[in-house]
Amino acid sequence: MASTVFCSIVSAEQEIFAGQVEMVVASGTIGELGILPGHTPLLSGVKPGPVRLILEGGEEEIFYASGGFIEVQPTSITILADTAMRADDLDEAAALEAKKKAELELSDQRSDIDFARVAADLQEQAAMLRTIQKVRNKKH
Amino acid sequence: MANAKELRKQIGSIKNTQKITSAMEMVAASKMRKAQERMAKGRPYSDHIRSVIGHVANASPEYHHQFMVEREVKRVGFIVITTDKGLCGGLNVNLLKKVVGDIKTWSEQDIEYDLCLIGNKGAQFFRSYGGNVVAASSHVSESPQVSDLIGSIKVMLDAFEEGKVDKIYLANNVFVNTMTQTPTIRQLVPLDAEEDEGMKHRWDYIYEPDARQLIEGLVTRFIESQVYQGVVENVACEQAAKMIAMKSATDNAGDLIDELQLIMNNARQAAITQELSEIVSGAAAV
Predict the structure, then answer these.
(1) Dist CA B84 CA B49 (whole Å)
(2) Mind listing the pLDDT tens digit of every residue in chain A (140 residues)?
(3) pTM of this structure
(4) Which one of A32, B70, B89, B248 is most buried, by most CB atoms within 10 A?
(5) Tell me, what DSSP letter sits at residue B213?
(6) Nearest 5°: phi and psi at B173?
(7) Given an 8 Å threshold on Cβ–Cβ distance, is B208 in contact with A13?
(8) Where do the H-state alpha helices sit in B83-210?
(9) ipTM over 0.90
């Protein structure tokens, strides 16, 4: 049996996942991170995007995190997300619409929009869509 | 013996009070449910971030955030979270007693203190007790926003950065269950290292991308979440304590009414007996 490590995902609103996993794949600030049990201590930011957990026995579960921090200790992994949810709960239509709206706002050359905010919004929606895609790929 | 009319009036007024307290009990019970939910939701995050911060404080990082450096203590700061309204039993009193106890121990070592007060009751108390209040905010709603709280906290954190205070404590009530709330005082900054033997050796994280940026972000988030959780928890405590206080007030009113009813019945019976004996003795005299 593969070795496992305790992983918990918490958002400001609730604890989303806590349990033993074989591997965690998350999108860190400077790239994709794949973390196995016994990893050296690591502290990283998390970009909006999917968090993939390989559960004990090889089953896979996908979550969405909208940024935050990840702390890795040899015996535990903690993801402190700003907001997080189960990928299955994501609403594709809403994400698509929000993305379109953000793109529209960005292409609109008026000066009164908060550029940074809209750009962050766009990035977040795109990440949500990517997560949804991942879930779909897994199912097929 | 008291006369029956007076007693009846008294019973009436106690009944009215009982109606009010039982209504307040029910209001508190329903508010408590919501407050408890909010508290339970926020708890995992605040617990986890505290343990992460505990690890970070144990590490020997390449970058030392200001909030991680222990200094010689000359002045301490207290952030005291109390309720806005009263009628919640000994909740605030217990907390303030604990804070005052701590203040006294510091004073004995000639260490002064600053106060940052969230909630009306603390402000009222320290107005008469004295003490240097640097910031106060009240009328925190039942569903507080981090942005509402951060203003008054900022004063304290700025004072720490400027070296005016060397330690900041957060004092609030912690919700154990509906019957018990424990007043707690926890150190907020400098960050408190988690006691763990396994962490004693020298080690450090790999930081991605940059230690300074990461730790700064993490520390800010930590303080926000601790204060937010403190306030949310205090709201849950307030409603629970209020519910219990109002329940016992309603019960007490009931007991009082029973007692008075008995006295009143006695008085009425005595009056009737007296009247009867007057009539009988009057008739016997004729």
Answers:
(1) 28
(2) 568 899 999 988 788 899 999 999 998 888 888 999 988 888 899 988 889 999 988 888 889 888 889 999 888 899 999 888 887 777 777 777 878 877 777 777 665 667 777 777 778 878 888 888 777 777 66
(3) 0.82
(4) B89
(5) H
(6) -85, 135
(7) no
(8) 91-108, 120-129, 146-161
(9) no
